[in-house]
Write a structure and sequence with these properties.
Layout lengths: L2 E7 L5 E6 L2 H10 L14 E8 L2 H13 L2 H10 L1 H10 L7
Antiparallel strand pairs: 1-2, 1-3
């Protein structure tokens, strides 16, 4: 099973970072506002802008913590570098990246 670390761009141009074992389900939860008290609930719509794929939950969790410490400039650099890879991972999960 793969695990994912992801970055969402919120409607207020802030970023949210999380990790999951089911990228499409988690993205839909953020997009619909189904997660009570979530950072993204009042900042919808959100856009999936970056995904990293990991073999274990522990690796994903450790990398999520690392990405959360990145400043905005660092996140945007990573997003630009990995735009095609992110789209391919999301499509493979059965989603559409509506930009």
């Amino acid at each position: 099973m793969a695990y994912f670390v992801y970055i969402l761009r919120c409607s207020d141009d802030t970023y949210y970072t999380g990790y999951t074992g089911d990228l499409l389900r988690r993205y839909k939860q953020h997009q619909s506002g189904a997660i009570p008290r979530s950072y993204t609930k009042s900042r919808r719509p959100v856009e999936l802008v970056w995904v990293g794929e990991f073999e274990t939950k522990e690796d994903a969790r450790a990398n999520e913590k690392k990405v959360k410490r990145w400043n905005t400039e660092r996140k945007e650099k990573q997003i630009r570098e990995d735009v095609e890879k992110t789209a391919q991972i999301f499509e493979n999960e059965g989603g559409e990246n509506n930009k």
